[in-house]
Amino acid sequence: MEEGEGLRRPALRRTLAAGAALAAAIAAWAGSGAAGGEPGATSATRTFRFTYSVAVRHIPAGARRVSIWVPVPQSDKHQQVLDVVVHSPLKYAFTREHRYGNRLLHLTANAPLPDSIELQLEAVVSRRAYRVLGAKGQAEGSDKPGPQDLGRDAMVPIDGKIAAAAQQATAGAATPLEKARAIYEYVTSSMTYDKTGEGWGRGDAIRACDVRRGNCTDFHSLIIGMARSCGIPARFVIGFPLPEDRKQGAIPGYHCWAEMYVEGVGWLPVDSSEASKHPEKREMFFGGLDANRVAFTRGRDLQLEPPASERLNFLVYPRVEVDGVVFTGVAQRFSFAEVGT
Questions:
Q1: Which of 44, 183, 192, 213 shows the greatest Cβ crowding within 10 Å of its Cβ?
Q2: 207: closest CA among 194, 220, 222?
């Protein structure tokens, strides 16, 4: 566990000095071989400073303890976290969520408590476009699926109508890759990106199957449930989109996608909701992703550390509890600015 207090101990900043060392790290990552890159765009890399701001307002008088959990991006094959800095008046620690190993920033304050608390997480991230299908040198790697990637989640069952939809979609498909493609095509074709009405945005696979409308969480929850019902490991990934046509600015909200595991290929990314909105990118978003995003966490039904009052459906926005009860007086802002290479 890495600990810090206020600005006196920015835990990760010491691992990469600003300036020349950071620039060298960016250059090394960008040039480290995009073997899994998108054809024609193998060098498509975006390096940016992502700012995640949280304000907890109007803490009740007499409250004894405030606990805050914030997701922290971490490095993988497709993104490199080059620097992380925390600005906070509170003592903090970096911890790990238990089911998927997601990295968390945990902050606490005890009575006497102020009326409000503000904090900010800054991360310098370099993200590459990639494609796993047909990529030279692509290997499965050590990131293998676990039992949680085949079982049900609270809002993602793998039986009943979800299994029936999967059976219908994959009729005639012989291999896991063919079934994964059939599921992607079925959901992309049959669902509409629509954030009207009640119930969207929770990643409720049953609702998605019934009403065929929702946002990215709903599209990909249905894909994950259908894939798992066919014996294909699948997992949920959530983070934030980066505007393709801007180099800096505010980010209004999250974006998510899914990954299905196919032997001989590895984790196969799909972005069905973006493919639905942009039919010209439908082929690209099966087995490949652009660099216009940053991943923060994986998985559903997350068990935070230290434990929150309940498991979380997913984590991308801050979780705040006052005396062990979820607190809603929270404002969050997200922004990015590209870093020159």
A1: 183
A2: 222
Tracing tokens 């493609």 back to the chain, one arrives at 181
The pLDDT value given to residue 134: 78
What pTM was estimated for this model as a whole?
A: 0.90
The pLDDT value given to residue 140: 62
Provide the b/e sequence for 42-51 (b: ≥16 CB within 10 Å): bebbbbbbbb
Query: What's the rounded Cα separation, in Å, for the pair 224 and 152?
Result: 9
Quick one: pLDDT at residue 340?
Answer: 77
Q: At what angle do helices 216-229 and 160-169 cross, to 10 degrees?
A: 80
Distance CA 191, CA 263 (A): 28
CB–CB of 130/264 below 8 Å? no
Q: Which domains does the chain have, with CATH numbers?
A: 2-129+301-338 (2.60.40.2250), 134-297 (3.10.620.30)
Query: Contact at 8 Å (CB) between 168 and 229?
Result: no
Q: How far apart are CA 123 and CA 121, in angstroms?
A: 7
- For the chain, which ranges sit under pLDDT 50? 1-17, 33-43
- Find out whether the peptide bond into 157 is cis, omega within 30 degrees of 0: no
Kindly report, residue by residue over 125-146, the tens digit of the pLDDT. 999 999 999 766 555 667 899 9
Residues with Cβ within 8 Å of residue 244, at least 6 apart in sequence: 290, 292
Q: State how far Cα 301 lies from the chain centre.
A: 14
Closest among 281, 316, 292 to 243, alpha carbons compared: 292
Residue 210 token pair: 């019934």
Identify the CA nearest to 132 among candidates 85, 81, 191, 78.
78
